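As a warm-up, study this chain.
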Amino acid sequence: MKFRTEINIPESRQKIQVEDCVFTMGSCFSAEISELLAKGQIQTLNNPYGTLFNPYSINHALRRIHDSALYTQEDLISFDQQAISLDHHSSFNARFPHQTLEKINAKIEQASQFLQKSHWVIITYGTSFIYEFLPGKKLVANCHKIPGKFFSKRLLTLDEITASIAETIENLTDICPQEVQILFTVSPVRHTKDGMAENQLSKALLITALHQTVAQYENCTYLPVYELMMDDLRDYRFYKEDMIHPSAQAVNYIFEKFGNAYFSDETMDFIEENFNISKALNHKPEDHTHPKHQEFLEKLNSRIATQQTRVKHKIF
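Now compare it with the structure written out below.
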């Protein structure tokens, strides 16, 4: 007798190797996946624009990264004594324009260089809703707590979403190595502030657009992350206290499903051992000078050294 509907991610013919670079972008869920990859000592870069949610804004960011189109002061606005880019997350805000631009342009250069060696890209969309900044008549990624009277909110159309996805694929295919694999997911986080029915419509548009577009490209795949959370883990015990975001247990479960489908055997062993080492590094003894603790550290350093011989990039 089955008490749940378990979902498995189809096994990929191409596998993530220990030396592969993995670029992730999109909603906060992409950051959680990137953090687990980094914990496993896989080379990864996440969200050079900060957290982004809609396909239009993600595509706009990737277009500028692809073109190495650096920002200038004309791209910024001033609000609440800060220089702000409406294309970026608020973490880029600074008091003076040159400070904001330094952070923004450094990330563009870093992302451009990283993408040129990335064999894997994971894009996570969170919503189909977008805001237009009325004074500039510009679609934006973030409102930065500017009063709502300066914005209008609407759903992206299915055509706008598919066009954004297609351009994203074309730019990534151009800037990345020839064998790049692009994986698309829809964030399982519900945007309850939009309204529950509106959130479902928003997610439905994303899923429809992805299935229509991804099927046209051999190097693109839709990962059923949204379905894993909604159907496989459909219990509030797999959510954080806000009942919206997946718990750490749920994220780890989805990551394990992803790994089973996409990690090579060597990569799986490499990541699991690095997880165990990270856990051991967090151990806090009562007596740092105790002989047993010194023996523990010696063995741990030996394990780290062994892992370091397995890859060319710097770990730990």
